[in-house]
Amino acid sequence: MSEHGEYRRRDRSWHPAAYTPAYRSTTFRAPRRALLSLPQSIGELSGPVFGHGALDPLDSDLIRNYATTGDAIGERIIVHGTVMDENGRPVPGALIEIWQANAGGKYRHVNDKYMAALDPNFGGCGRVVSDAEGRYSFRTIRPGPYPFPNDGCAWRPAHIHLSIFGHAFVQRLVTQFYFEGDPLIARCAIVNTVKGQAAIASLVAKLDMQNMQAFDCLAYRFDIVLRGRNATHFEGS
Length: 237
What we know:
about 5% helix; two-stranded antiparallel ribbon; Protocatechuate 3,4-Dioxygenase, subunit A
């Protein structure tokens, strides 16, 4: 019990099993031995940390932060929300990074062999620091779905990868979120490794018409809960 209330432990029962045959690549990379939990040392907890001064005003605008000849192509959206702790209190000063495919479902990465075209004005990466109320916001392009080889050809729903840094670089949480109403979510072998609809729901950004920008961008809200029973589902947590 703290002065702010009871600490709410994370429910680990909904975390995917490392070996999940329906998600084919887990059969090759799932650990065969029991996992070890290593405590963090004082060196890891004391730094290094990121510098707020390193962020550019356009870092949170993926429509323009890589552009040279015009805005990125695709459905323009705003993704925003609040970073909270286990008791619903805002977490200010959190560094949030995102990376994603473009509107055609292609990443700007040498290993992405999907036939979809690259957008010369879209880099697919952004970052922002949460404000005093724990709020963050990105302007970007809604990513497209893309195929991957999973017992033939499976398709990933549109999604954005996200990481949140704590007080040092070793304190990092990574996840990915999807978009409300996408029919591919229920069909995705990777999503279906997550146990339970509540856990999957914690990974879905909700359409937020109140915060859309007229004649410009739709908005989606994705709140992030770092710890406790109501925690957002994080990869490897």
